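When time allows, look over one protein, given below as sequence and tokens. The question is which stretches look regular and which look disordered:
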Amino acid sequence: MTNYFHYSEDATIKRFEPRLSPSFPDEPPMVWAIDETHRPLYYFPRQCPRIAYWKGGGTTEQDVEAFQLNTRMVIVIEADWFYRLEDVALYQYTFSAQSFSCFDENAGYYTSRSIVEPRRVDRLNSLTKMLLNEGVELRLVPTLHKVKEEVLGSTLNFSMIRLRNARN
């Protein structure tokens, strides 16, 4: 059975109602979820800016070498966020795939225009350990701006989340 996930620092959500997304202002209200492959993108405090990249079908070997991509995925965060990552507890909400459809296959986003109730909720601790167990390399940098430009100029598949919270 296929499941999709939502991550929150709030353990009390009983139902998810469709809402507008600031990242996709032209889209109708939706409930957002992530697939299993991409769920490590959300093993972070909600407001933590991050850039993830991984090898895709069009990724060149030159970019694999240049970005030292030796694991299935690299996620880069600003160093200031590391201790918050270590201290936060997240809650993984698991949804049945029934009402969801693919919004963005590269990022693993799935959406529903219906109210969704989670099938289960699990508390997650030790997020850095979870990242390692998922084959993710975590990298720390002072600011994400240089990484953003480098990744945008590459052939890598990527996801950039909450960059509006990145340091200037």
Summary: The chain has one domain: 3-165. The chain is about 15% helix and 30% strand.
